[in-house]
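So, can you check what follows?
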Amino acid sequence: QVQLVESGGGLVQPGGSLRLSCAASGFTFSNYVMRWYRQAPGKERELVATIGRSTDWTTYADSVKGRFTISRDNVKKTVSLQMNSLKPEDTALYYCYVRYLGSDYWGQGTQVTVSS
């Protein structure tokens, strides 16, 4: 079955960096677009970044453009999110996502807290 397992979250000071990773299994990873979402307390889940099947295209939310970079390794079946110049408003639970055969799959999430 499809599994997505995130890691790499933590507490970081404003201006700092974190790298999130998502390990995927249960489907042919290289055939699917992958996404990162986030959800802050009391807010709706927000699409952060998307990457095409062969890394040929990426898109970002305006709020993270120029600071975050999504990447993937189709051999290791991982998708990553490099987050630089972090701000307190980036604090959220970050989720890896794939739409596979018409169904939505989410990881359990990894918490990112940006605070001094």
